[in-house]
Design goal:
The protein is of the alpha/beta class. It has a single domain (about 40-200), classed as Ribonuclease H-like superfamily/Ribonuclease H (Nucleotidyltransferase, domain 5, 2-Layer Sandwich), CATH 3.30.420.10. The chain contains seven helices and eight strands, in the order ααββββαβααβαβαβ. It has helices at about 5-10, 15-25, 85-100, 115-120, 130-140, 160-165, 185-195; strands at about 30, 40-50, 55-65, 70-80, 105-110, 145-150, 175-180, 200. The strands form two sheets. A six-stranded mixed sheet has the order 6-5-2-3-4-7, sandwiched between helices. A two-stranded antiparallel sheet has the order 1-8. The two termini are about 30 Å apart. This is Putative ribonuclease H-like domain-containing protein. It holds the Pfam family RVT_3.
Length: about 200
């Protein structure tokens, strides 16, 4: 069996899985941070969670102000659904709650499902009937907001919303937290408010 030194000396490494793994190890990780919104802007981070073995899904999200202070959090089990539908419902529910609370001046939407963010930004139509129904509901809500900005963030920067979404798996009915966050997310919220950098390996 070739030793690692001999493998590195081989000239035809392009399709060698060992060499690909070595190159992967030498890629610099991406630095990910959660960013505070500007003054006068409210930020909604949302996420969906799906258990592949059972097919059960849940949603969650968090609303914070320009000081990264907790305004509202939500979590809910939504039964059987795939991860895409869970992400869409998480966003729709978050928008409904933001609107219900009168925070409709400037809203920043942020999630780790890039395709959904692009659909919202570009107001794209989708072919899937189930997706189209939920997206249409989101589009009907958006005009109620004065200004909307949507952005994608890696899941390492969406940890609070991810935690809420996972908490939803254990709930028998929808849950909303106001002003004071549950202890399960307090430590993560503090880290994000302080601008903690979380490293993400390239290729994930």
């Amino acid at each position: 069996m070739l030793g690692i030194i001999n493998i590195l000396r081989c000239q035809k490494l392009t399709h060698n899985p060992v060499s690909q793994f070595i190159r992967y190890l030498h890629k610099e990780p991406i630095k990910v941070t959660w960013e505070k919104p500007v003054i006068g802007c409210t930020k909604l981070n949302f996420d969906g969670s799906c258990k592949w073995e059972s097919g059960k899904a849940s949603i969650g999200g968090v609303v914070r102000n320009h000081n990264a202070e907790f305004m509202l959090g939500y979590a809910e089990s939504i039964g059987e659904a795939n991860s895409t539908i869970a992400e869409i419902i998480a966003l729709r529910r978050g928008l409904e709650l933001v609107l219900e609370n009168g925070w409709n001046n400037n809203i920043w939407l942020e999630g780790d499902y890039k395709t959904l963010v692009e659909i919202i930004e570009q107001k794209r139509q989708v072919r899937c009937m189930e997706m189209r129904e939920h997206i249409s509901q989101i589009y009907s809500i958006l005009p109620w907001f004065n200004n909307i900005f949507a952005s994608h963030i890696y899941r390492e920067g969406n940890r609070v919303a991810d935690k809420f979404a996972k908490m939803g798996h254990h709930l028998h009915e929808p849950r909303i937290w106001r002003n004071v966050p549950p202890y399960e997310v307090s430590a993560i919220m503090k880290e994000e408010a302080q601008g903690k950098i979380v490293l993400r390996n390239k290729g994930l």
